[in-house]
Every structure is written in structure tokens, then in C-alpha cells.
Amino acid sequence: MAGQNSFRSVALFVTSHGFGHASRACAVAEALTDIRPEVRFEIFSSTPQWFFSGTLDDFRFHQLNCDIGLVQHDALNTDIPGTLKALANEIPFKTTQIDALANKLTDTHCELVICDIAPMGIAVAQAAGLPSVLIENFTWDWIYRSLAERYPALLAYADALEHVFADAKVHVQAIPVCNPASSAVHVNPIARSPRQNRDSTRKALGLQEKSSMVFLTMGGVPQEYPFMNRLHQEFSTIDFVIAGFGVKKEWVAPNVLLLPANSDHHHPDLIDAADAVIGKAGYSTIAEIYHSQVRFGYFVREGYPEMQALADFLQHNTDGFLLRAQNYMSGDWLSELEDLLAVQPACRQQTLNGSLQVAQLVSGLLST
User: Fold this and answer.
1) How far apart are CA 91 and CA 181, in angstroms?
2) pTM of the model
3) 97 and 124 in contact (C-beta within 8 Å)?
4) d(Cα 358, Cα 173) in Å, to the nearest integer?
């Protein structure tokens, strides 16, 4: 670790809309410290601190709700009235809050602000006189504008945030991109990398040596699994590992293992060890699937603007298929599980992780 006097401080503002954006931010931060070991992060987010600790060693955490995004009932359903109520309390940003955060960046000697779709970070960077880097595959103004056809009250918030996002000094769009901008730097999917090989992860999980492993992950929003009993009753020869459920690691059936959200097992390791993944089509899961080249049966949130771009990317760049969201709770999607496991993976060329592309760009922005 670098001595305290040689630290270079970078602020990281991360939306807490699920864990996907924090995952992407962690991947970029880890790649940047590989290039610039002297960098230390000041992280501003309401994503739990333990999530960042799972990837990063040297950072200070500041609890902050960086944006409203969309209020969700669960991983597949959005609460628009709740979103509008929350936005009314937060937009426009309060000058006193922005100035206080800008002073904090000055006090912690930050040289640069990186924002994963958190517009507040861009506003704070402006107030502090610092350059800002926006990383996104969608922005909230685009989401709100897309939804405004059905919910016109969102249009005012889209207009307000569009001006904030436009102030970023550097605009990075990570594939799969929802609303491509010609002025942005486009990078490959950004994902955290596995730390263990497949066999080591499966051994650490306590799985049967030759059984198929199916990994269920619905992102950082709590989700029910009402079909859990069927996993043992109908698929006893398959091992199921379910992420983000309960408070401890627990076998609830001979072939069903529950992992808490704050698990010792690195999420990219779990994806890499699986024969197939079942889950919500969220950015970080898609990026990890893409780089690990694992079969994916995915659900999308219907009527949500981001989903079409993500589903199109999955269809053309991964092995697997779409599952009907209305079949999730009933477990009727299980009738397609054997078909998913039978998919023959295409041989695809590995591509450079977008985290390294962003890290190289950000490193060039730091003074030498």
C-alpha cells in the first residue's frame, strides 16, 4: 500500500439502483488501481459499504443517496408514484448540500470525480471545480423521457437532469448502450473479473463434483423465490445456488444452496462456475455473463426503456434465451431449464474488459 503522503484521491459517486452500478464502478476502480496503485477512492453511495469492500481495499465510504433513479417494488416491478414523490423532494438539488459535498472533496484532496449514472456527482464536481467522468449505459433523463409518454410528470425531471449530465467533462458509454451518443467514448462491457477457477469455486460451495450447477441471481433488489420447493422435487440431479437470499449460507434442500447478499463468494466466480445462470437482465450480470460465456436464461422488466437494448445484446452476443417475466413467480419457466442446459455455446472471441479501457482513460486525466 502506498504511503499516506503519496495517495491520489478520486471521488466515486455511485447510484444505488440495485448492485449493478456499484459492481461496474468497482470494476473500474480496481482496474484503475492496477494502473495507478497510489489512487485511493472516496466513495459516495447508499449501496452498502460491504459491497465495495468485496472488491476494493483502500477507500473511504460516505453514506449518500446520490440519486432517486426508480423506486422498485422488487427486481421486476417499478413504483412510478413512489418515484415521483421521491423526485419532488430531491430535484432540483439543494445548493447547501452540493456546496457541502464540494467542500468535502476539497478537504479530501480529490482530483477527479467518477460518476456511475449519479448526476449529483457531476453537480458536486462543478461546484468543486473538478473534472468529472460520467459512466453509463443509460442516464436517468433518458429513462424518464422514455417513460414520460405514460407518466408526463417525469418530463420536468428529465429536462432538469439532462442539463446536469451534459456538464460531465468526459462521457463514457459502456456496451450495451441504450441511447448512443456520438460525442461519448464507447467501451466494451464492464465487469468484475473472476478470482478463482470453476473447480475451486464449486469445491468452496460444496457442490457435487459432476452435477450441473444453475445459479439464480436477481440483482441487488430483494426478490422472492416461491418456486424453491420445486427445485428439489423436480430437479434433484441439478445443484441450484441462489444469490441474495437470507442472512447466512444455508442448504435448504440437498441440492439448493442459499447465499446471502453479503456473501464470501465473489459474484463473478459464481457465474463463471455455473453451467447456466437464471436471472434478471441487469447490466453487471450481463457483462459478467458476456465475459464468462455462460448460458443465460433471463427475465426483463416489461415496459422499462432499458430492456430492449439489453435483450438485443443478449440475443446476439450470449448463449441462452428470454424467459417470460409473468412465469417467474409461478415457476413455469422451469419447464425450459433442460432446454437451456442443452444449448451448445458458440465459440466467441474474448474481448478486452471495458474496465481496463475506462481505467486507461481516467489515468490519463490524472496529473502526473
Assistant:
1) 25
2) 0.92
3) no
4) 10
Which residues lie closer than 8 Å to 124 by C-beta, 6 or more apart?
A: 11, 13, 98, 101, 102, 105, 113
Ranges of beta strands (E only) in 184-249 are: 185-187, 212-217, 238-242
- Is 175 within 8 Å of 189 (Cβ atoms)? yes
SS3 state at 31: helix
What whole-number distance in Å separates Cα of residue 263 and Cα of residue 344?
31
pLDDT in tens, 118-160: 999 999 999 999 999 999 999 999 999 999 999 999 999 999 9
Task: Give how far the C-alpha of residue 193 lies from the chain's centroid of Cα atoms, to the nearest Å.
Answer: 13
Per-residue pLDDT tens digits for 68-88: 888 876 666 778 889 999 899
Buried b (16+ CB within 10 A) or exposed e, 157-174: bbebbbebbeebebbbbb
CB 184 within 8 A of CB 171: yes
C-alpha cell at 186: 464507447
For the domain spanning 4-190+353-365, the CATH number is: 3.40.50.2000
Residue span(s) of the chain under CATH 3.40.50.2000 come to: 4-190+353-365, 198-342
Query: Is 198-342 a CATH 3.40.50.2000 domain?
Result: yes
